[in-house]
Amino acid sequence: MGIGSRLFLIIFLSLGLGIFVSYIIAERDITDTFQKHIINELQNQASLLVEVVDEVNSIGGLNEADSLADRLGSASNSRVTLILSDGNVIGDSDVDTQNINDLDNHANRPEVQDAFLKGRGWSIRYSDTVKQQQMYYAILDNNNVSPNVIRIAVPYVNVNSAIRSLNLSIILIALVAFIVTSIASGIAANYAYRSIADLAYATSKIADADGKAKKKDLKALPTERTDEFGNVAQSVSQMSEELKSKINLIAKQRDQFGSVLDDLGEGIIVADIDGK
What we know:
This protein has about 280 residues and is of the alpha+beta class. The protein has helices at about 5-55, 60-75, 110-120, 155-210, 215-220, 230-265, and strands at about 80-85, 90, 120-125, 130-140, 150-155. The chain folds into two domains: about 30-155, PAS domain (Beta-Lactamase, 2-Layer Sandwich); about 165-260, no CATH class.
């Protein structure tokens, strides 16, 4: 694998990993935010239902309570359940009146327990009554002596559908980012490779010149650049100039020494100050 391919792979994997991590975080945060938004909407609707119902135990008989639950459920486009303080259900918009008494006591439902303890509560769970996953929100009515519970619920499949739509948008964004990353990685890798290749070519020409680098070879070095490649090119150019100077000096000294050796044939006389 060449250096260009390695550079592309490193940049591509780094950016790809960044996009993947960003997708995971974005998907989690958007899901949590959307879920909180749904809970807030259920809370607002439940608060309105409390104002309409006032006190669950003050409603007439079972038929009247279930009829009220049906009307409220139709108006809010959700499932509305009216639960007495002992956990018995007297109205449910998704259950026929004749089947209300067959429903289990709801005092042990998580959202109902939280409502009795904290005034309100919510949960996401499977409903044995309607046979589907639902998001529940329960709130106490206006009875301060023996409070009852008004519960509202929506199918969680609707929430999942909305979240899947958001996830699809995130995936499309990630896909576009992935394509852009691939192109950017190729451009960045090619730029780095070309810079290294140009520097390698110029230095090899200088090396092949055997210390007699031509001016055009030195000019091929990207010394005008201000990045790391420019620093290396300037260092190579400086080394080349210094090497050229030293070679010229050695050649000069060699010529001088050769002239001395050539004159040895004519003889050398060594005398003191008196000529002896």
